[in-house]
Please model this.
Amino acid sequence: VGIRLADLGAKLVVSFDEEVRPAEPRLALESGRPIRQWSLAPDGRAVVVEPAAPLEAADRLRISGFADRSQSAYPMEPAVLAVEPPLWPSDRTGLVWLWETGDAPNLVPDPALGVDRACTLDPVGRAWLDRHFAMDLQGGYFAAGAEDSARVHLACRGTNQLTVEAMARPRAGGGEGLRTLVALAASGHGESFTLAQIGDRLVLRLRVSWGGPGAVVQTELARLPADRASHVAVTFAPGRLEAYVDGERVLRDESIHADFYHWQPGYGLALGGLAGGGWSWSGVLEGVALYSRVLPAAEIAENHLRYRSLLRERPPVERVVAEARLLRKSRPPTLAEITPYDEALVAFEYEVTRVVEGRLDGDRVRVAHWSILDREIQPVNDMAPGTAVRLTLEPFAANPQLASFFISDTLDAEATLYFSVGG
Model:
């Protein structure tokens, strides 16, 4: 009935609709890749195939020679099964919203149209994309469109099931109180669900009635360490709440028996804060997927492995932390200059007084700061020459997400241009 990759391509699992047994088993990959071994799953309903090396590209498995367990065994017809490479997420069934990174397709199935549709996000306030096109949240949030928000609401309310998956790296000292990673909610109005952080603890808030003190149930899930990327997944169906960190289950709670009948239509889907503002989270967020089903533990573990593999493929960039003094400023851009766009950068020149981490050539550095975000003029524009600052920098050339933004650089200086990733 199907084939899937497991253990990041180290295993192929061929599923049957009943127990099978080997008769004259024959298995081969069309690419010619050797198969190290195969085995029957404990329940007899799957054949687990282990290639000599993990599969990293598409292939086709030829399989025959298995039969059912009836007294007069009926052999299976020879089959050729297409094997997809180990993409994330590993199974798109019930996938209702997806945002890997800003440069990924971010497609989800649209059953009504029979095609895939793209999920998009718009930055609001102090929020932008980092060099990997992940969300860098420093007081703002990213908002999904009204249509995407409504689809999430309708799909999950229809099944009374929800899975939230994300790769989150909270920033140390990211603030006090409730801070939102993912929410279907609206500032000042209420919420259907909110995956949030309080201190170093991850929590889930679920609406279980129309109003009153008990309208939203809050459950503490697990510790979320600062300055480290953690794969988190939370699943809910009436009577079963589970939480996973880095593929391992850390909580099972069977005390919440409510369904999603009381979820409110019209609430906005937002990441890093509430739609309309509030409960801002500070950190880097990516790999967010919402499902209208409960993902099993094995699938969550596989998704964790696959996203970790994506992170490992990224080329490293050395950050520089330096203490410096502002020497000169470019003329800040105006809103009129950047219209119809909403963001712009400005270049400053600094004298470096001490390199705390990393390496810099020379004692002068040019730094691009956000000058305008979401059409709001940023305080950095008012910084006076002579001001002492601590800078966290990456080479501007290593930040391709900035290529399309207007930058005001009137310094006429030759020092290497960096980007202030610390805001």
Notes: The chain has a mean pLDDT of 95. The first strand starts at residue 2 and ends at 6.
